[in-house]
Amino acid sequence: MHPLNPLQYYQFFKDFTLVAKAFLETDILTGAIVESYSYRLVMILQEMVDASYPYIGDLNQLRELLPNSSIIKKIISTTRQLQRSATNSLHPMNQRPAVLPGTIAPRITYVPKNSSIFEKSGNEIPWRGVNIKYTQNEIFVDVIERIDYIVGSSKSPLLNSHAQFNSSGSAYYDLLTVSNDRSMVVRKAHPPVSANIQGQIVFSSSLSEMPQIELILDPARHNLGIPSFHKCVDLGSWLSDHHTLEFIPPDEKFTLMEYSINLLEELGKNNFYNSTGLVEADMTTGLGIAKNMFEIRLQIKIMHTVECVDNLKLDIYLPRDYGYTIKVVRITQGSVELKESGRYEWIFDKQTPTGLSCVLRGEIRSDEQEEADVTDDPLFDATKAKVVKPRFVRLSYENKGCVPSGI
């Protein structure tokens, strides 16, 4: 006897929660709901568990096996009516109609149709219902990706006095290259600490009968690693050609495939720089006489399939040492608001057009300097000024019409 995978039970509870919510028509299972509909949950468990082991977990299969809510209510109502009728019609034994001599009392036996559980549930394709009919046959495919991109701050010292445009380094660029005549400093992209894309293909099917779907992917030269698939996918087709997915879809919205792309493996390639998203950010710190000013530039790329980016915002986290505030010196788009102690938010409209270049220049002041300019102090020495800069900034946005990987 082979031991069962412990994760099988975890998956069972996940499936049971999904099935229970679907049958009880609720988004959340509360104690009151479980108590009120315990009889339905017992019926579900009787089908999903066999001899204490997980047995059936497919929602479509269980829909074929279990009666819906209206049928159960009708059964309960009919049972109560029969119970009242039986109570009111009880008679003494001698008043019951006798069976005539030489005759046999009829016995009615109900033989269920399609008594086999597998025939009744259409078990050959357990994730899909049987006899599905649609007037309009259509499918919808969405590719959804989330890119996480972390860039460390620059720690390289200044190479020469010509690097005045970036007096203490940029969070997104590093001064690493100087031309032969020492007259020009070339900006070189600072390598990211982490860069990966988490993606999924969501499929929604409204097709009749048992459709055979072949979906061909263009991975855009990315290495998708070892993706995870819905059980409906024929793995043989994918293993023979990492571009083709063949499957019979469930009759519902489901996640067909999940994948992960490690962009660090593609560092230095063209597809890496094309996969870093629509919005680029660059932060320069240590500006001004007191070296307490910073400038953040956002560049929203132009993409013909994308009209705008949604929910664009940038969080600015200040040092924890003292109570610092930000005084906005220049801003070309949006507004800056204090959200909590030590965190400001550069907020844009809900929809921001592509092709924009936005600039925010701010000055970081401590509480005692909030109303006074430190440079007005006659004892102020600019040569001994300490750089005050944000700890880090965090950019987030959404867009429709394209994905970072280009799949």
Description:
- This protein has helices spanning 7-24, 31-36, 38-48, 59-65, 69-88, 117-121, 235-240, 270-273; strands at 49-50, 53-54, 138-151, 173-178, 185-189, 192-206, 213-216, 228-229, 244-247, 253-262, 279-287, 293-300, 308-317, 324-331, 335-340, 343-347, 351-353, 357-366, 392-399.
- The strands form six sheets. Strands 13, 15, 16, 17 and 19 form a five-stranded antiparallel sheet that branches. Strands 3-6-10-8 form a four-stranded antiparallel sheet, with no helix packed on it.
- The radius of gyration is 33 Å and the shape is elongated.
- The longest helix has 20 residues, at 69-88.
- It folds into three domains: 1-82 and 116-130, no CATH class; 138-144 and 195-266, Immunoglobulin-like (Sandwich); 277-407, Sandwich (Immunoglobulin-like), CATH 2.60.40.1170.
- The protein is built from eight helices and 19 strands.
- The two termini are 44 Å apart.
- Helix content is 19%, strand content 32%.
- By secondary structure, the chain is α+β, with helices and mostly antiparallel strands.
- Keywords: Membrane, Protein transport, Transport.
- InterPro entries: Adaptor_comp_med_subunit (IPR050431), AP2_Mu_C_sf (IPR036168), Clathrin_mu (IPR001392), MHD (IPR028565).
- It is found in: Endomembrane system.
- Belongs to the adaptor complexes medium subunit family.
- This is MHD domain-containing protein.
